[in-house]
Specification:
three-stranded antiparallel sheet; 351 residues; 16 helices; mainly alpha
Length: 351
Amino acid sequence: MLTAHENELLRGWIRGLFESEGINDELMSTCKPAEFHLLVATLFDQSVKACQTRVLAAGLTWFAHALWETKDPSPSIDTLILALSVLIKPPSMSSDSAAMHSAVLAIVAGPLEEALTHAQRVHKLRVDINPLIETLNARIQQDNRKTKAYAELETWATAPPMGLQTALSDSVNGLLSWCLTESSGATASPPNYTHRLVRSCVQLWGAQATLQSLVDELMSRISAGQEQSVDLLFDIVVSMVVAPQPNSTWTLKEVLKIQSQEANELSKTNADRARIIVRLHRRVENFSAASAHDVGGGMAMEVGDGGGMVLNDAAGITTTDLDDVLKHTEERFQRGDFLGGAGGDRYMAIG
């Protein structure tokens, strides 16, 4: 239970943060840091509710302006930093509150980071400002990575003529061409490749459709009589199949195992495809068994975040960033846009 004085202070802070009059000097002088600490829980609860009406960002922006105006010494800096510490790094939040808090930080992280950096230069002896700067920098970097991840996904999904299917096919063939050049003794620059492409396909198409596309690539090479390249292509596809997949879906390896168990039935209508599936499954199993003793395989590829192979990739996007973008993409578009039937409809581009 708050005292009358504390209730008055709380009303002053709420009015200052969320109404037009702003936080005045009188409030700053009458609210001691210890008193503000007592008001934190209630004030933060009100702040979360304010997110729903889009006014908390304006309140945090006020803090940025106030920080630019502080001088050393400043009687208000203690209260400013204490308030920002709670608002930027709250001690606990529900999942709903955390989502709102994240949305607000995304809006104000840049201006606040700049203002806090200025305040750190002015108040050189303070040790409580830099942790806030580091928190905001991490948020800014995460937002930048997610922006890159979405742009990357959009590039793949709009690749003509068939979006993700074209992007996957081009990547497989680009890797194959590079491997063939290297195996001949010549030197070639590696293509741009990241396992995020396969991960995106599995998340948006499903593992079955992604595996079907990879098997199609193998079938086309075998049908064309390009046996020299088939063995290398199997290595590439195996590397894609065994790399980690989204946790919420069937993996390529799991689907391949099921299809290999059904190969006898498939052989009655498509013997060539059944043989490829069985051959691919055996190589995946052999690779998995060997990797328990000697991780590496035949392809000189870096291991990126999430365990997938990476070549010539400087984007710095993490698996977590990609999964957040994929989740957002699935919320914006119905899954039927990506999995809506046979043929080209399965590979519709985003947008």
